[in-house]
Amino acid sequence: MDVVGVIPARYLSSRFEGKVLADILGKPMIQHVWERAKQALSLDELIIACDDERIAQACRKFRAKVVMTSKGHACGTDRISEVVNPLDVKIVVNIQADEPLIHPTMIDELAGALLGSKDIVMATIAKKISDPAEINDPHVVKVVTDKNNFALYFSRSAIPHLAVNSEVKDPVYYKHIGLYAYTKDFLFTYKNLPVSRLEKTERLEQLRVLEEGFKIKVIQTKFETIGVDTPQDLKKLEDYLQR
User: Fold this and answer.
1) Contact status, residue 46 vs residue 113, Cβ threshold 8 Å
2) 149 conformational bin, left if phi > 0, alpha if psi -120 to 50, beta if neither
3) Which of 44, 73, 192, 203 is deepest in the core (most CB within 10 A)?
4) Neighbouring-strand partners of residue 65
5) CATH architecture label of 3-230
6) At 125, which helix (H) or strand (E)?
């Protein structure tokens, strides 16, 4: 098997408990994510990895493949690792359960990047910010890259910072979309990396990869997404879908 997609889902979200089951136009949020991911051409298998029977029951209703995992996992990466450990697979795509606007093309482009180059062990997605309000929103993670589109840094702050005397009058900002792909080997390397100083500072798990000297390929997308971290995000998403 070349590529497996895993949607890690936990019930006890600190900012929005049970959000993966929040109703969006008559369907739980995780069903929106699963239905979009199922359209990806690159996935040989799609699995929902959850820690709560309420999530499992809801997912079985729309005939998703569900694997129950330990409640003790500290993050989605650990949950995914438990699921894929026994699988013979090359590439693992981590599909966030709170990104109901995920586009299947994003998944295919991530998988293609890793399958097409032995030098890329991890990749993610970014989109040019079109809404100025997102630039200084700490819930919207920003990313800057080098000339080869490898991540230099991720931050909840506005990066790059526009200096008062900057020659650049109209900087471009990119938001990070929480979709990742890894080789299976690197997934377990990543899982075992120590929690880093910058990760603790920004509360962004992917920073441990950069601090340890590994590279993350960043692929740009034209598709808009709205990640759901709070009930307010859910209302914003519903308004967007209704429009």
Assistant:
1) no
2) left
3) 73
4) 47
5) Alpha-Beta Complex (3.90)
6) strand 122-128
